[in-house]
Write a structure and sequence with these properties.
The complex is a heterodimer. Chain A is built from eleven helices and 25 strands. By secondary structure, chain A is an alpha/beta fold. In chain A, strands 1, 2, 3, 4, 5, 6 and 18 form a seven-stranded mixed β-sheet that branches. In chain A, strands 8-15-9-10-11 form a five-stranded parallel β-sheet, covered by helices on one side. In chain A, β23 and β24 form a beta hairpin. In chain A, α1 packs across α9. Chain A is globular, with a radius of gyration of 22 Å. Chain B is built from three helices and five strands; from the N terminus they run ββαβααββ. In chain B, a hairpin with a 5-residue loop joins β1 and β2. The longest helix of chain B is centred in the middle third of the chain and has 8 residues. The radius of gyration of chain B is 12 Å and the shape is globular. Chain B starts with a strand and ends with a strand. The chains are: A alpha/beta, B alpha+beta. Chains A and B meet through α4, α9, β21 and α10 of A and α1 and α3 of B. The complex binds flavin-adenine dinucleotide and FE2/S2 (inorganic) cluster. The site of flavin-adenine dinucleotide has 37 residues of chain A, from α1, α9 and β21.
Chain lengths: ~425, ~110
């Protein structure tokens, strides 16, 4: 049998992979598009997995990003449950080999392999009842485990850990969050937002332990987790443990193929890798930092996957990519909604606006507003997102004045 | 199955069968109705699913709550009194025949 061939082969059927396929068709590309994904399902949304999917507010059907008929109509050929083991690249394209040794040739390749959950390097991490969350299959296991009741220990006070903790707590479980750093969300936002989150989650009854290093997961005779041991000797009882200590870009096949990778696959703003026939998008990549010359940044968000995939599709067709929008992110943690506009990393100062139930942190670099983190303040989020896009700023001296709205301050400018 | 009619910014109209319990946004996006971006997938976080509800239907769909209202204030297309974020409109049998006009900029 002749080897199958795709004009464009997309490895990975997540937000970014689907985004490239969709954009290629929107741009009028008429060639064959094959999307190969190792998971047994059509492209779906991951954000609800740590939120509504665990609480029962969203089901399998609502996770699905596109209907199967739509993908068929668009001529997007989706191969499910097919893991690409390696790719061979040539000047004209190359071929990809699957786990089962079958292969497909392509003219152009898209790497949209996402990321995998980072493992916790402590004894006991393999016990039954210890989960991490990346896929819907993981989420289904966690949902069932939580149904059986707690206590639940979440290791890691980042977005996914806190979302799961808040969802489980709202369902009445006893929940403890263990964070090695001195504050929550340390890598991503400034201290005032960390403190706001800490207070909100503690008020909801979540036990949060900061500066707490996990040294061991303890199990029963039958290999099920029963507790989490901390460096100070404390043993936290646990029926379910969730490890939420970050994600690692899936660069395996890119590395083997000789593409430049650091933490992620290195791409330029147009999604180009170091091979002219290969583009990459989404969580598997690292890209130029928006305001720190010479640095690379990995952005793990739906918005980034969508924007990078648009750029990559343009590049595949030899077109200039559209202007990049302001990166943004959201996280729902129980009743609290965090929204982030812009990239605050690299700021040289921030101004806090805090009211009873909401908080806004405005980040500056060289006197210019570059980003904002808000909790429960959609108006400020929307205003800042727009302002950063239009390069408008607020006077840093007056930015903390709560008698004036951020929108008003933006109108006046610096 | 209720049907929803979407008027897209490109002038086309789309009559789509909707699943009860799904959102109007989801109904449109899954079958590729042009114009709705819906970046946050319905999490009420992006305001890129902005629609104008036909005034005859606004009583049936209801108006935006406070949070949605604040999001709409800075939507790309200026809002109108019948603006909604379509991810917040739940499909019920009562919405059979609902007409929504998709905001031109998301
Ligand atoms: C639980 C959770 C909650 C999140 N919440 C939010 C949120 O609230 N807001 C937000 O903005 N972002 C959120 N994110 C992040 C967002 O979902 C990701 O940034 C986005 O999914 C990235 O898309 P992607 O296509 O790059 O990767 P993915 O969606 O991970 O897709 C990659 C796909 O490629 C497949 N794959 C990998 N290697 C191979 C191979 N060799 N062969 C075949 N297939 C392969 C994987 O199995 C996977 O299906 C969340 C993520 C998770 C996991
Ligand atoms: S889809 Fe994001 S607000 Fe409706």
């Amino acid at each position: 049998m002749a080897q199958p061939h795709a004009d464009v082969l997309i490895v990975g059927g997540g937000e970014a992979g689907l985004g490239v396929a969709d954009e290629l068709r929107a741009l009028g590309f008429a060639g064959t598009i094959t999307m190969a994904g190792e998971e047994p399902r059509l492209p779906y949304q991951r954000p609800p997995l740590s939120k509504g999917y665990l609480s029962g507010d969203s089901d399998d059907e609502s996770l699905e990003l596109r209907a199967p008929e739509y993908l068929r109509e668009q001529g997007i050929d989706v191969w499910l449950g097919r893991r690409v083991a390696s790719v061979d690249l040539t000047d004209q394209g190359g071929s990809a080999v699957f786990d089962d040794s079958t292969s497909v040739a392509f003219d152009r390749l898209v790497l949209a392999t996402g990321a995998v959950a980072r493992e916790l390097p402590v004894p006991g991490a393999e016990l039954a009842g210890v989960h991490s969350l990346r896929s819907v299959a993981d989420a289904a296991l966690i949902r069932d485990a939580l149904r059986a009741g707690g206590p639940l220990v979440v290791i890691g006070g980042g977005f996914i850990g806190l979302e799961i903790a808040a969802t489980a707590r709202a369902r009445g479980l006893s929940v403890t969050v263990v964070e090695a750093a001195g504050r929550l969300l340390e890598r991503v936002c400034a201290e005032p937002l960390s403190d706001f989150c800490l207070r909100t989650h503690r008020a909801a009854g979540i036990d949060i332990r900061l500066d707490a290093a996990v040294v061991e997961l303890v199990g029963t005779d039958v290999g099920a987790v029963s507790g989490v041991r901390l460096a100070d000797g404390t043993l936290l009882p646990a029926e379910v443990v969730i490890v939420g200590v970050g994600a690692v870009p899936a660069t395996g096949i890119a590395e083997k193929a000789g593409l430049e990778c650091r933490r992620g696959i290195v791409v330029d703003p147009a999604g180009r890798t170091t091979h002219p026939r290969v583009v990459a998008a989404g969580d598997c990549t690292e890209q130029p930092h928006p305001h720190l010359e010479g640095e690379l940044l990995a952005i793990e968000s739906v918005n980034n996957a969508v924007e990078q995939s648009k750029a990559a599709a343009h590049t595949l067709l030899g077109l200039d990519p559209p202007a990049r929008g302001v990166p943004w992110f959201w996280s729902d943690q129980g009743g609290m909604k965090i929204q982030i506009a812009g990239v605050s990393h690299g700021h040289d100062g921030y101004v806090v606006r805090e009211e009873a139930e909401r908080i806004t942190v405005l980040y500056f670099r060289g006197g210019t507003l570059i980003a904002a983190d808000v909790a429960n303040n959609p108006r400020d989020f929307m205003a800042v997102k727009r302002a950063v896009a239009e390069r408008r700023t607020v006077d840093r001296e007056r930015a903390g004045d709560l008698t004036r709205s951020v929108k008003d301050l933006l109108r006046e400018g610096a | 199955m209720p049907t929803i009619i979407f008027h897209s910014p490109d002038g086309s109209s789309h009559k789509v069968d909707a699943r009860v319990g799904a959102s109007a946004m989801e109904t449109a996006v899954k079958v590729g109705v042009p114009g709705i971006v819906a970046e946050c997938g319905g999490a009420l976080s992006c305001a890129t699913c902005h629609v104008f509800v036909d005034s005859a239907w606004i009583a049936a769909t209801g108006i935006a709550d406070e949070f949605e209202d604040e999001m709409l204030d800075d939507a790309e297309t200026p809002r109108t009194p019948t603006s909604r974020l379509s991810c917040q409109i739940r499909v019920t049998d009562d919405l059979d025949g609902l007409e929504l006009t998709i905001a031109p900029e998301q």
